[in-house]
Amino acid sequence: MLLREGHRRRPRRLTLLCAGLLLLLLGTAAPASAHAALRTTDPADGTLLRTAPRYVTLTFTEPVGLLTDSFRVYDPTDHRLRTGPAEHAPGHSDTARVALPAKLATGTYTVAWRVVSADSHPVSGALTFSVGTRTATAANPAPDDAENPVTAGLYNIARYLAYLSLAVLLGAAAFVAYCRPPTAAPLRTPVQAAAWTLLAATTALYLLRAPYEEGTPPTFSVSSLAHTATTRPGALLLTRLTLLLLAAAGMALLRARRRRLARRTTLAVAAVLSVPLALTWTAAEHASAGIQVPLAVTAATLHLLAMGAWLGGLTALLRTLRRTSPDTLARFSRLAFASVTVLVVTGVYQSWRGLGSWQALTDTTYGRTLLAKLAAVAALLLAAACSRAWTNRLTREPRSAVARLPEPVTVPPGPLPPLPPPPPERPNPPFHTLRRSVLAEAAVGVVVLALTTLLTSTVPGRAATEAARTGTPTTGIPTASVTTIPFDVGTPGGHGKVQITLDPGRVGRTSVQAVVYGPDGGLSTVPELRVTLTLPAQHLGPLDTRVTDRGGYWSSDTFDVPLPGTWTMKATVRVSALDQVTVSAPVRVTR
To answer: Of 584 and 293, which is predicted with more confidence?
Structure first.
């Protein structure tokens, strides 16, 4: 008996361990990359102007929301200027601008900015421009202003718990409604725990929304909570809370009714609320911005519902497996297959929409995270195939037993012949093997869910690629500096461009990566590439970055940038034994 109890507790302990490790991973992960990538700035970063500009204008790849402190402008002496309020350019929700004072002294100005993407994630950065002449500046709107690790960690944990709870609730409702288990009593505890967890996680997300947007420690005030209610993410969180409270009130009223009627009404309430509840996620994340928004929101909603039906259904199956009939197993097998089909179709569309190109699959953080998710999904499908095989074996047992029943025969009168010896006892169906397979499937599903949460916190590959083409950053301060320099050696097919990344683009140890693209826009291999940096203002350089060929790209991890300023980056590209060319472009290095 003690051995059986130990076996029963083992899946629960394993699930809690997986969830705890994933919560630790999400809570201590690096700050999430935002989704609105900066496309252009006016004035451009590092520009030397003859006259002072009237506005600083930023243009993004998607609509952005403004904060009360979206812009901070520092003069050459590191004093903050009094500026007008942040606003959108007339008729352009994808821009943010701030009016500058009428008269600006000569020197270099630093602009720190922070806005909120249309898919609810904040993005921040900095730029400089000079009026009349360039001067040294001590302004350092530094990494402290980008993300608060405590706020970001708590927010990420709450988001993951909300996803996990939704999956359990949707899966339990789908399992009871379609699979019709003999009893749903074992599901009462996980469903109640998921409902309370989702309610608490949603409340935490609403309370943390303002500090998360502003990059400040977790502090709460009436004004910040009221401002959150006026934003789309805040309004969707309030809608989610309202739906959950309505569902709780409906469940409370059903307790006094008959069990059968209560069960049917409960399933009806779950079916009605599942779609609007899922929309409170999809209308505030990746699908709500970019191309084909209506189709993207529909696909994301179906993806979320299918994910809940499958992964949450696995939880329900684990809880009821000892009392599950073969008929229930067969129904769940069909439910899982339909869910996987929806997940594959909608997942392919979402991947195409987020990536934009095959190159982004390996060249962007979004693409690499997606590859990790695809690997986890492949493992999940393998575990699901094993579960389906065992399910088919179990569901065939009763049918084969019925098929072997003897035909009735006519017995002549007289003494009955002796009964034949009973057949050997058939072994019990391998429920323990199926349980292990389902448990493995659920454990991998938790990992897939965590990677999905991380994907929603990563800038899409399409936006990252577009930002890289314009040489603008895609993340907060400090950020990588991406410079694209065209070249042409003057021979047929001897032209292309070289993309050079300094990560981070600031003083100190930095990683240098260079990729060469051919005339058709695809990756090109060259026999030699040399990248140097020169700082004309300080008569410093050229400094050789010593990039080496890493099989398709060139890289160096040991280069030190000694001083901030506008450096001249030179790239010498040799395309053959005789043909080479040297091209250059300015690159801004911050403190």
So the answer is: 584
Model confidence pLDDT, tens digit, residues 426-447: 444 455 666 676 677 667 767 7
Q: Which pLDDT score is estimated for 14?
A: 45
User: In whole angstroms, how far apart are CA 93 and each of 60, 87, 100, 211?
Assistant: 9, 9, 20, 23
Instruction: For residues 130 and 128, give the distance between their C-alpha atoms in angstroms, rounded to a whole number.
Output: 7
Helix (H, G, I), strand (E, B) or coil at 570: strand
Residue 314 and residue 175: Cα distance in Å, rounded? Answer: 9
Q: With H, G, I as helix, E, B as strand and everything else as coil, classify residue 213.
A: helix
- Residues 85 and 71: their CA atoms lie apart, in Å, by 8
Question: What's the Cα-to-Cα distance from 253 to each of 71, 200, 246, 267, rounded to whole Å?
Answer: 51, 22, 11, 14
HEC states along 499-535?
EEEEECCECEEEEEEEEEECCCCCECCCCEEEEEEEE
34 with 459: CB under 8 angstroms? yes
From residue 376, how far is each of 371, 442, 456 by CA, in Å?
9, 12, 16
The reply to whether omega before 43 is within 30° of 0 (cis) is: yes
pLDDT, greater one: 194 or 386 = 194
228 neighbors 239 (Cβ within 8 angstroms): no
- Phi, psi (degrees; rounded to nearest 5) at 579: -105, 120
Token pair, residue 197, equals 């967890």
Could you tell me the pTM of the whole model?
0.61
- Tokens representing 283 are 């209308």
Q: Tens of pLDDT along 551-584?
A: 777 888 878 787 888 888 888 888 877 778 888 8
Residue whose C-alpha is closest to residue 129's, from 167, 172, 75, 90: 75
Widest Cα–Cα separation across the chain:
123
By three-state DSSP, how is residue 96 classified? strand
Least confident residue range of 67-81, 178-192, 412-426: 412-426
What's 68's DSSP letter? T
**Closest-CA residue to 377 (of 303, 436, 316):** 303
CA 1 to chain centre: 45
Cα 583–chain centre separation:
38
* Residue 414 CB-density burial (10 A; 0-12 exposed, 13-18 middle, 19+ buried): exposed
73-99 pLDDT tens trace: 988 887 888 888 889 988 888 899 999
Among 19-23, 26-30, 150-154, 502-506, the minimum mean pLDDT is found in: 26-30
Query: Quick check: 85 and 111 in contact, CB under 8 A?
Result: no
- Distance between CA atoms of 272 and 11, rounded to whole angstroms? 32
Q: Are strands 122-131 and 47-49 parallel, antiparallel or unpaired?
A: parallel
Q: Tell me, what amino acid is at 3?
A: L
Distance CA 262, CA 264 (A): 6
Please tell me whether the peptide bond between 398 and the residue prior to it is cis, using omega within 30 degrees of 0.
Answer: no
C-alpha–C-alpha distance, residues 583 and 575, integer Å: 14
DSSP string, 361-402: HHHSHHHHHHHHHHHHHHHHHHHHHHHHHHHHHHHHHHHHHH
As a whole number, the mean pLDDT across the chain is 75
Strands 47-49 and 71-74, bridge-based pairing: unpaired
Distance from C-alpha of 1 to C-alpha of 290, rounded to nearest angstrom:
58
Distance CA 130, CA 48 (A): 5
